[in-house]
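Q: Here's a chain of 133 amino acids. Please give me its 3D structure as tokens.
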Amino acid sequence: MVAAPSRRAVCPLALLVLAMLAGGCTPQEEDGPAFGQAPPAQRERGRLLLAQYQCGSCHAIPDVQAARGRTGPTLAAFGRRSYIAGQVPNGRDALVRWIVAPAAVVPGTTMPAMGVSPEDARDMATYLLALER
């Protein structure tokens, strides 16, 4: 016969599980504040850079001028995605590396290197990670 766990044993275990779930639900906090709360000027610069680098020739990107491409996946709700290119856990640092040198992050990818500087990539990543819908 198996005894039921005591109330004292269950409570700390439940708190541990809740703490783990809470930490796992906010992966972006490891890279800084939520991207929806990033400075508006940085998000706006990122949006403009996505148009300047013509990312929209391959991707549909919300609120980016002429970004209606269909060669690559839509970037709508990018901030809610778990992975970049279906392989790399989504987060600011990984996304910046991906934008600067996609083939270095995922060898064999069809995403071309666009000559984006790390500074521009940071702002572009900030905009993309703020996209929740």
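Q: Can you summarize the key feature?
A: The longest strand covers residues 83-84.
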